[in-house]
Each structure stands twice: as C-alpha cells, then as structure tokens.
Specification:
Blueprint: E1 2-4, H1 7-15, E2 23-28, H2 34-46, E3 49-54, H3 64-68, H4 74-83, E4 88-90, H5 94-98, H6 117-120, H7 124-139, E5 143-147, H8 151-163, E6 169-173, H9 193-198, H10 201-212, H11 218-230, E7 236-244, E8 260-268, E9 271-278
Parallel strand pairs: 1-4, 2-3, 2-5, 3-4, 5-6
Antiparallel strand pairs: 7-8, 8-9
Bound molecules: adenosine monophosphate.
Adenosine monophosphate (AMP) binds at residues 28-29, 35-36, 39, 146-147, 149-150, 173, 175-176, 183-186.
Length: 280
C-alpha cells in the first residue's frame, strides 16, 4: 500500500496506472471505523484500484471546537487500510490541498443545501463541495464512494458532479451500525459511557418514525419524536425532518409518488450526531 502526502507525488503515481483499470476514490476524514471500512471493501470489490483519502477538511467545520477535537488516529487507520489491501492512501496537509488559500468556493446546489445540515452548519456544504472537487481533480477517479450516513452530503456530491460536468459515478453505501443500532461515527469515540448508552435512541426513534409513516401525518410524527427525546437527558434533539429524497426539502405532507427519508441531528453534550432512515 502506497502512502502519499503531496499532490504532485500522488498525481505522478496515478499517471502510471493502466488506463484500463477502474479507479475508485473513498474520501474520509480518518479515525476509521467499520462504516468506513465497509465502503473501502465495496470499492475494492467493484474496482481495480482503490484510493482512500484521509483529510480533516477545515472549511467544512462551522465549529472550531469540533475541528480541534476531531479524533486523529492515522497510524491505526493506515494499518486497517493495509489489512484490506487498499492500494493507495492520500494524506495531505491543508496547505497541500488548498495551496495556502484555505477558503471555500461558493456553490449553487439548487436548494439541496437549504435545509437540515445546511441550515444548522453554516457554510458546511460549500466546504464539502470545495474539498471533494479538489480531490476529484487530483485523483480523477472513475467512481467515488460515499455513505448514506451523510445522505444530504451524498445528494450534494451528486449535484456537484452534475454542475461541474464531471464523468464520475457516485456510489452511495448503506449505513453501517453498531449492534444497538447507533450509526458508526468517528465522533462516537468522544462519547462518555452514559452518553454512549443513550445514543441508540436516535436510531430507535427513526425506526419508530418509519412505523408511523403513512399511518399518521407528519406533524404528529414530529411531535412524537420530539417528546421521545424530551425523556432522555443525555440527548438534545436539534432537528427531526421528513424530506423528499430528491429535493431534500422538509415535507409537511406526503405525496404518494415520492420517496422520503427521516433525518435526525442531536447533541450528546457538545458532540453532534446525525442519522437517517428510508421511509418508503
Ligand atoms: P467521514 O470520515 O465522517 O467524513 O466519512 C467518510 C465517508 O464515510 C463519508 O462518505 C461518510 O458518509 C461515510 N460514513 C461514515 N460513517 C458511516 C457509516 N456508519 N456507515 C456508512 N458510511 C459511513
């Protein structure tokens, strides 16, 4: 497994790759867990050559403390990727990626960034779009793999490839969960024992919202979910929304022809957790 830190070295190395090979990119921020690894395994199965990037992108953080406390476990990450027979890991510094200009490009994502994570994390998706576009330009993958855990991000990346006219197939991968249902996240390692115990409520309420979907109206479901969170002192609900999967606009009523997902963001102390579920 090759590990590169500079843009020039990774580009030079990929130039030598057989043009017939299908090249996959799995962008990550490191602190790898089984959720990340399940994506890498899938990318390995479906491609000839897999690149994983590990880069904690400063421009997508709206909260300085969250960025400062983001877990970094590079040595262990490289070991895990080596065990999966990953072909290449790109571990750049911020200056390397941003060429000393650490700022976001402004994108028009056609409203996909106007709800949920977009409203609660100002500038987040411009930061994500900026770094993913840069990674795509450096690696030039045929396919790029993203998790449905960040479903809004996945749809925004789809839009990014459309508006930037990139010939990259975006592959969405299922959410990988702990046994108790908690979606795996690098931030889970920061939870205290009590916070960790209460965190599965996020997934449990999503499952309940799925059971209520089409039986009760959306206003009822929203009130019910909010009341479930009020009972749990270690979790504060930031938002619960039911949104059309294509536009990501929060819905107030259901249209039979459309597909919907339920989305939750909640705080456990200062740690922000997100999750979502397909409803129909
Ligand atoms: P991150 O390192 O958090 O930026 O995540 C890197 C990629 O892994 C993103 O596409 C995430 O959506 C995806 N991912 C993170 N956690 C999970 C999970 N539990 N299941 C599936 N994909 C995930």
């Amino acid at each position: 497994m090759k590990v590169f830190k500079t843009v020039d070295s990774v580009k030079r190395n990929l130039l030598n790759l057989d043009k017939k090979f299908s090249l996959a990119l799995v962008p990550t921020m490191g602190a790898l867990h089984q959720g990340h690894l399940s994506i890498v395994k899938r990318a390995k199965r479906e491609n000839d050559f897999v690149v994983v990037s590990i880069f904690v992108n400063p421009t997508q953080f709206d909260n300085e403390n969250d960025l400062k406390k983001y877990p970094i476990t590079l040595h262990q990450d490289l070991k895990l990727l080596e065990d999966l027979d990953c072909d290449l890991v790109f571990v750049p510094t911020a200056n390397e990626v941003y060429n000393a200009n650490i700022e976001s490009e402004k994108f028009d994502f056609n409203g996909l960034d106007k709800a949920m994570e977009g409203t609660h994390r100002k500038g987040h998706f411009d930061g994500v779009g900026t770094v993913v576009k840069k990674l795509f330009e450096i690696i030039k993958p045929d396919k790029a793999y993203f998790g449905e855990k960040d479903f809004q991000q996945l749809q925004i990346i789809n839009k990014l490839t459309e508006i930037s006219k990139l010939q990259i197939k975006i592959v969405g991968c299922e959410i990988y969960r702990e046994k108790d249902g908690l979606a795996m996240s690098s931030r889970n390692t920061r939870l205290t024992e009590k916070q960790r115990k209460s965190a599965p409520l996020i997934y449990q309420t999503l499952v309940k919202s799925k059971a209520l979907f089409l039986k009760k109206d959306i206003i009822f479901i929203k009130k019910f979910i909010a009341s479930e969170f009020k009972k749990e002192k270690y979790l504060q609900l930031e938002y619960f929304e039911i949104a059309d999967v294509k536009t990501l606009t929060p819905a107030s009523h259901v249209e039979k022809s459309k597909k919907y997902r339920a989305f939750i963001a909640a705080f456990s102390g200062s740690i922000r957790l997100i999750d979502n579920i397909a409803l129909n």
